TrEMBL record:
The keyword Phosphoprotein does not apply. Belongs to the WD repeat coronin family. One of its GO terms (molecular function) is actin filament binding. SMART domains: DUF1899, DUF1900, WD40. WD repeats lie at residues 76-118, 126-168, 170-211. Residues 3-67 form the DUF1899 domain. The lineage of its organism: Eukaryota, Metazoa, Chordata, Craniata, Vertebrata. The gene is CORO1C. Keywords: Coiled coil, Repeat, WD repeat. Pfam families: DUF1899, WD40, WD40_4. GO terms for biological process: actin filament organization; neural crest cell migration. Transmembrane segments: none annotated. This is Coronin. InterPro entries: Coronin, DUF1899, WD40/YVTN_repeat-like_dom_sf, WD40_repeat_CS, WD40_repeat_dom_sf, WD40_rpt.
Length: 474
């Protein structure tokens, strides 16, 4: 007998919005015309880009701070132009990066219990883009490595620990970059661009490994993300403005593995991917639904599961990492849907009769520990995420403070900008520390010398004045 219905444990996943008192109310969500998700979430905080007069700002709320948010609630407000994108560091739940129309990227340290005063001073300002910065994305496995992409069509990869731009890919895209996605171990990135190309790039070799022209033929924005198996999933539009999704193998991008037409709505489809369950959730900007699909090795490869529908359209969407979910309730995803004036959590659940831990739903997932230091990654090493079990729930540990040790600019070469001097820039951490310590010692010795000189001069002056006094007295 041929099976008529494909077997899958995710066939009955259902979504449910939380009650009103568990929403975050009275938030003026940003109206800036930019196709980012406007919201970033981790197991401690939800961050939302908001309307701000005279600059750019975003809210950072502890997850438990539901209900009406007071207008005077402190914000993160150091940018001089609207904030376009925000991203929580995967290795430190108190560190968040933001990109803005003011051409800068800023990295912020949020206090453990949330903000009590507005935050205007970032830990570090990363300057290198000549136009607005619309994309920020942390490296999935290396500590303190951050990617940014701007409307100058350049991608810069920073070592946040030193505040340096170590890789600058400024000649690979001829038009605006719509999005950038790291692969599972952070060795490659894929990009979707306004020139209708999807590119797979090795950032450290500064090479395009694969590209597909006209991945989607329509003129509206595309998105491209890496899946755990190395394939690339894209969303875009057909020539007839129908929304499409496609699956590609970077080793052969002539034809897609799968291509599906969806509907004729004009909102950009933002894909959110769960590598543990191989489910992709598609949230259209301006839509009032979330569609979800399972990716498998069997044809047709992308299997439609279901749609969560609501009445209100979404302005943006946040997606909780797996370690922030409630495993006792068989929750496999949690979204934070932005309305015009509020943020509403939506919980995706697999119905199960048992209250026991469902290990088939929760394989070991990426934990908060970094597998590599920044210097190791820039020197060419790769590592998969360090996995943790969710069997007994996830208990957030103590985060160490982000410390930025800027290099002495006089001692270092100009920042790596082109291919030739790229890989020679990163040095061993020990060497860096040595150079910095020597520079500090020199400074201290100079200061001591100048103080001694001042004391000698004052001594001479005092003895002269004493002689003059003696003469007058005589």
């Amino acid at each position: 007998m041929r099976r008529v219905v494909r077997q899958s444990k995710f066939r009955h996943v259902f979504g449910q919005a939380v009650k009103n008192d568990q929403c975050y109310d009275d938030i003026r969500v940003s109206r800036v015309t930019w196709d980012s998700s406007f919201c970033a979430v981790n197991p401690r905080f939800v961050a939302i880009i908001i309307e701000a007069s005279g600059g750019g700002a975003f809210l950072v709320l502890p997850l438990h701070k539901t209900g009406r948010i007071d207008k005077s609630y402190p914000t993160v407000c150091g940018h001089t132009g609207p904030v376009l994108d925000i991203d929580w560091c995967p290795h430190n739940d108190q560190v968040i990066a933001s990109g803005s129309e003011d051409c800068t990227v800023m990295v912020w340290q949020i206090p453990e219990n949330g903000l009590t005063l507005s935050l205007t001073e970032p830990v570090v300002i990363l300057e290198g883009h000549s136009k607005r910065v619309g994309i920020v994305a942390w490296h999935p496995t290396a500590r303190n490595v951050l990617l940014s992409a701007g409307c100058d069509n350049a991608i810069i990869i920073w070592n946040v620990g030193t505040g340096e731009a170590l890789i600058n890919l400024d000649d690979m895209h001829s038009d605006m970059i719509y999005n950038v996605s790291w692969n599972r171990n952070g060795s490659l990135i894929c990009t979707a661009s306004k020139d209708k190309k999807v590119r797979v790039i090795d950032p450290r070799k500064q090479e395009i490994i694969a590209e597909k022209e006209k991945a989607h033929e329509g003129a509206r924005p595309m998105r491209a993300i890496f899946l755990a198996d190395g394939n690339v999933f894209t969303t875009g539009f057909s020539r007839m403005s129908e929304r499409q999704l496609a699956l590609w193998n970077p080793k052969n991008m002539e034809e897609p593995i799968a291509l599906h037409e969806m509907d004729t709505s004009n909102g950009v489809l933002l894909p959110f991917y769960d590598p543990d369950t191989s489910i992709i959730y598609l949230c259209g900007k301006g839509d009032s639904s979330i569609r979800y699909f399972e990716i498998t090795d069997e044809s047709p490869y992308v299997h439609y599961l279901n749609t969560f529908s609501s009445k209100e359209p979404q302005r943006g969407m946040g997606y909780m990492p797996k370690r922030g979910l409630d495993v006792n309730k068989c929750e496999i995803a949690r979204f934070f849907k932005l309305h015009e004036r509020k943020c509403e959590p939506i919980i995706m659940t697999v119905p199960r009769k048992s209250d026991l831990f469902q290990d088939d739903l929760y394989p070991d997932t990426a934990g908060p520990e970094a597998a590599l230091e920044a210097e190791e990654w820039f020197e060419g090493r790769n590592a998969d995420p360090i996995l943790i079990s969710l069997k007994h729930g996830y208990i957030p540990g103590k985060n160490r403070d982000l410390k930025v040790v800027k290099k002495n600019i006089l001692d270092s070469k100009p920042t790596a900008n082109k291919k030739c001097d790229l890989i020679s820039v990163p040095k061993k951490t020990a060497d860096m520390a040595g150079v910095q310590n020597e520079a500090k010692l020199d400074e201290i010795l100079k200061e001591i010398k100048s103080i001694k000189d001042t004391i000698c001069n004052q001594d001479e002056r005092i003895s002269k004045l004493e002689q003059q006094m003696a003469k007058i007295a005589a």
